[in-house]
Design brief:
By secondary structure, the protein is of the alpha/beta class. It is built from nine helices and nine strands. The protein has one domain: Rossmann fold, CATH 3.40.50.150. Helices cover 36% and strands 22% of the residues. The strands form two sheets. The protein has a seven-stranded mixed beta sheet with strand order 3-2-1-4-5-9-8, sandwiched between helices. Helix 2 crosses helix 5 and helix 4 packs across helix 7. The chain is globular, with a radius of gyration of 17 Å. It starts with 13 loop residues before the first helix and ends with a strand.
């Protein structure tokens, strides 16, 4: 068994990760952002409420969860353990995000009017609201801070080969959301682990029932989208869970 504390997160290379996964946008990722954008629009659109605080736990070198939250948030915490990933996120937030991410933003803007409405100011808006912050999801449970919308993409099952750590990660993610807050969480199904650069990283093999069991104590009204796409050898598709933090 490989625990989260044993993985070489200090060596995680964001440039390699982005080049492999996001430089040429995949149809499955475009589908994901459209679904997440609709989920957040259905919840926040037309409501007489101010912007909320958002969080992306284990943000890594993936900027599209933050873009999905952008119109709805006064601040977005990008929680990340790896120092090189933090540097990458700071650069994207401070200098304006790379053109590679425009393809994902375009999917949101073309599909949902509220995203299109902030299209011209998307770079400046991210500079204003994004807050990359060092943090370990497995240690987040004691935090008194709460967020009004959350994202967790390919994190809980991709940080260790421990089932206990997987369930703890899911529990901590939902536990820091305000009651009723919408969330989006994505999982690699039956993952055997993965490589970034010259390093190997662990994973815990999950299927939809395992994900649903982990979410159930603190989530409600969850919709599951099983995505039949193979990114690499050693997994069997993806799962997107869209739901809300339990209110009672």
């Amino acid at each position: 068994m490989a625990l989260n504390s044993e993985a070489p997160w200090d060596q995680f290379c964001p440039n390699d990760y982005v080049k492999r996964n996001y430089a040429s946008p995949l149809d499955v990722d475009k589908q994901i952002v459209r679904l997440v954008g609709r989920h957040f629009t259905d919840h926040f659109g037309g409501r007489n409420q101010g912007p909320v605080k958002g969080v992306d736990v284990g943000a890594g070198a993936n900027l599209y969860p933050a873009l999905c939250m952008l119109p709805w948030c006064s601040e977005i915490t990008l929680l990340e353990k790896g120092p090189k990933n933090l540097d990458y996120l700071r650069g994207q937030a401070e200098d304006g995000f790379d053109t590679a991410w425009d393809a994902f933003w375009d999917e949101l803007a073309y599909s949902h009017p509220r995203y299109k409405a902030v299209h011209g100011e998307r770079h400046e808006r991210l500079r204003q609201v994004a807050e990359p912050r060092p943090g370990d999801l497995l240690e987040l449970g004691g935090s008194a801070e709460r967020w009004g919308v959350g994202a967790m993409f390919f994190v809980a099952e991709s940080m260790s080969s421990s089932g206990e750590e997987f369930r703890t990660a899911v529990d901590h993610f939902l536990g820091v959301l305000e009651p009723g807050a919408p969330f989006a969480a994505a999982f690699m199904l039956q993952s055997e682990g993965y490589e970034v650069g010259a390093y190997e990283y662990p994973a815990y093999a999950v299927d939809q029932p395992a994900v649903a069991e982990a979410l159930e104590p603190l989530a409600q009204n969850v919709t599951y989208h099983e995505l039949d796409f193979i990114l690499r050898e050693g997994h069997e598709g993806m799962l997107l869970a869209l739901g809300f933090r339990r209110t009672g």
